[in-house]
What does this fold into?
Amino acid sequence: LAAALDGACFLHLALAANAAGQLVVAWDDPRLDESVLARSLDGGQTWEAPAPVQVTGAQVRRARPFYTADDALNLLWEDAATEAEGRLYQQVSADNGQTWGEPWRVLAALRAPLGQVRLDRVTPSPLILSAGLGERRLRLAALDPVRSAAAPGGWSDMKTIEFRFDDPDTDRPVDLDLLQMALSGDQVLVVGQGESEIWATQRQMASVDWLYQEVGPWSAAQTVAEGAAPGSAPAVAIDNDGLVHVLWDEGAEPSATRRSLSYARYDGAQWLRPVAVLSASEGKLDQPSLAVVEFHPHPGRKPPLAGILDVHLQDGLALPGKELLVQEFYPWGP
It folds into this structure.
């Protein structure tokens, strides 16, 4: 959900679902300058009217609903008055979002804005919070009541990871930026931007032990693409077969046209040569996202990837400003 107001784009959207098909969506309403919630109890066929997230003495922003392993609906949010300090609060609902208990502060060691945040479920129960996506440092924490019984709310300590290494071909130092992370099954993968290359590194994740202590190293960074300088963080996804997919825009300079998106895939042994998958004759394409489509629209054919990206349209066109485009594509061929 996005709204263009006075040339600015306000965007925050978070969704949670449980096994019963109940959905909760939260977003920041730019007219109210606070978060609102809407619920669906029938798998998204019908929706209740959106309602502001009201907490006495706070102005709730960037609300993020999630379900724990016991099917309790939780809400993480930031207060407008303290968001620059990175303060994060949590509430629990005993009736699936009709009413909420008193909030408490979590991850008290946070001292900086969270930036882009994502919540990922790791089988069978831990939840991983990733903050700082698209930046130089990732901050990670796990919600694992078994491992973090002594911590408020069951959260682990925040772990910061960054990647500095020497290019094995040139011996020059590489300091990755625009980091993105993907989790799937037993692996965690991080993709980032070097000076003019996109790199990837991964590690096995049979459990969340690596968030509590150093358990095994990250793999040596591999080059995904050379001569690439995206203007926004690459998008990364891991499908059900363990294949890794990366999508990025072309052109980091402010004046760059960025009218094409490139794609590369890791087949378990090597990174395949990048190819252009989408182009535009006007405006520019950037800030892509990737999602693995789990249904099979064509029997006997591997399901597509869904690419979600911002489309910036030039002044004077029929749709000025910013819009979201969803594009399905089949990198496997016909």
DSSP finds one helix and 28 strands in the chain. The mean pLDDT is 77.
